[in-house]
From TrEMBL:
It comes from Paenibacillus mendelii. It comes from the Bacteria. Residues 7-67 form the HTH tetR-type domain. Residues 30-49 bind DNA. Keywords: DNA-binding. This is TetR/AcrR family transcriptional regulator. InterPro entries: Homeodomain-like_sf (IPR009057), HTH-type_TetR-like_transc_reg (IPR050109), HTH_TetR (IPR001647). PANTHER family: HTH-TYPE TRANSCRIPTIONAL REGULATOR PKSA, HTH-TYPE TRANSCRIPTIONAL REGULATOR RUTR. The lineage of its organism: Bacteria, Bacillati, Bacillota, Bacilli, Bacillales. The keyword Cell division does not apply. The keyword RNA-binding does not apply.
Length: 194
C-alpha cells in the first residue's frame, strides 16, 4: 500500500512538473511551485527527484526515446505500400495521447538543459531515415531524382508539421484526424493536388 502511494505521488510530481515546464520553460520553472501544487514541501520533493534537472529528465527522456524508436523503426519498409501508410500514422498517433505534454516540453521548453539539442537530434534521425528512402527511390528510378541536399528540408518540414499539429490540437480525436490527414498529404504527394 505504501509503495502504491509513493508511485501515485511520483506521478503527481511528474504531471505538475510537466505543466510547470510547459508554462515557464526549464530556466524559469520552480521546484517550489511544483511541490506546492502537489501538496508537499520542496525538501520532500527532493526525496523523489534529486533536482530540477533530474525531474526534467524524467519528464522528457521517455518521449525522446519513444520518438527515436518511431523514427528509426521505419527505416525498413514493409512490402505492402498501404501497410506503410497505416504504420506511420499509427506510430505518430501513438505519441499523441499521454506523451503529448512531455513531447511539447521536449521540443519547446528544453533551453538550458542537456536536451536543448533534442530537436536537432530528432531532425538528424529523420534526415537519416529520409536519406535511405530517397536513395532507394533513386535506385529504383535508375537516376538521381532527389539529391542529398533535399534530405534535410524534407525531414525538417515533416517533423515540424507534425509538431505543429500537436501544439495546436490538444483534443486527442482531433489531433488523430489531423495526423492522418497530414501523413496522407505527404504520402500521396503534392503531384496529386497540382
Amino acid at each position: 500500500m505504501v509503495q502504491v502511494l509513493k508511485d501515485e505521488l511520483r506521478q503527481a510530481i511528474l504531471r505538475n512538473a510537466q505543466d510547470e515546464f510547459l508554462q515557464y520553460g526549464y530556466a524559469a520553472a520552480s521546484i517550489k511551485r511544483i511541490a506546492d501544487k502537489v501538496g508537499m514541501s520542496a525538501g520532500n520533493l527532493y526525496r523523489y527527484y534529486a533536482g530540477k534537472e533530474a525531474l526534467f529528465d524524467s519528464v522528457v527522456e521517455p518521449v525522446f526515446h519513444k520518438l527515436e524508436s518511431v523514427i528509426k523503426s521505419h527505416v525498413r519498409e514493409p512490402s505492402n505500400e498501404d501497410n506503410i501508410f497505416e504504420l506511420v500514422v499509427q506510430a505518430l498517433i501513438g505519441l499523441i495521447g499521454e506523451l503529448r505534454g512531455p513531447l511539447l516540453v521536449l521540443i519547446d521548453s528544453s533551453k538550458g538543459t542537456k536536451h536543448e539539442d533534442a530537436l536537432q537530434r530528432l531532425h538528424q534521425m529523420m534526415a537519416d531515415n529520409v536519406a535511405g528512402h530517397l536513395e532507394a527511390y533513386n535506385s529504383a528510378q535508375g537516376r538521381v531524382v532527389f539529391t542529398e541536399q533535399a534530405v534535410w528540408p524534407i525531414s525538417v518540414a515533416f517533423l515540424q508539421g507534425y509538431f505543429e499539429i500537436i501544439r495546436r490540437h490538444s483534443d486527442t480525436e482531433e489531433s488523430t484526424s489531423m495526423v492522418r490527414q497530414y501523413v496522407l498529404f505527404w504520402y500521396q504527394g503534392l503531384r496529386a493536388f497540382l
